Amino acid sequence: MSEIKVLIEGYTSGETNGRSCSTVVLIKDDFDGVEMNIVVDPGTLSSQQALIDELKKEGVKPKDVDIVVITHSHMDHYANIGMFSNAKSLSFDGWYNYDFWGKCNGKISNDLKLIKTPGHSDDSITLLVKTKIDGKPAIVAICGDVFWKENLPKKDKFANNEVELMKSRKKVLKIADYIIPGHGGMYKVNN
Ligand SMILES: [Zn+2]
User: Fold this and answer.
1) What DSSP designation does 157 have?
2) What percent of the chain shows pLDDT beyond 70?
C-alpha cells in the first residue's frame, strides 16, 4: 500500500503578488517488494532547500527519488525536475530514463495509475493512488491543474479547452475519494 505526503502546499500568483508554485507530493510505493520514492510536480519555489528539508523529514534525499511525475508542462509544476539526479521522469509523453524514452500505458504499479485529463492543457495527466486515509482504503487523485484548489477555479482563465476540462473534472470527481489539486492541500470528494 502506498503512502502519500504533501511536502509543499502550492500557491498561485493571484494570492501571493506574482509568486506561483505547485503543490509538491511525495509517494512511497511498493514495487514488488522494493520501496520507491516518487515526487509529483517538484514545483518552482524560491529555494530548493525548502524541498530538500521537507524530503529529509520523510527520510528521503534527492538522490533517493526514483521517479518524478509531471502533471503538465507548465513551469510552476516542473522547474525543479533537475534536483533528482537518479530519477526517471514521467509525463503525458511517457517515460524518460536519462535520454532513453519509453511509452507509458497508464499502469505504473499495483497502486499507481496515470490517466489523461486534458483541458487546462492538452498534456494534463492525473495520477491515481491507492492508499489508506485515516485507516480506510481510498483513491487519491493528484490532478495537477484540473483543479487549482478545492473545486476551484470555477472558470479556468488559462484553460486550453474548457469543454475538455469540464469532462476531466467530472472524470476525476467520479473516481477519487480525495483530491490533491495543483495549488492547494488535499480535500475529500463529497459524492
Ligand atoms: Zn499550475
Assistant:
1) T
2) 99
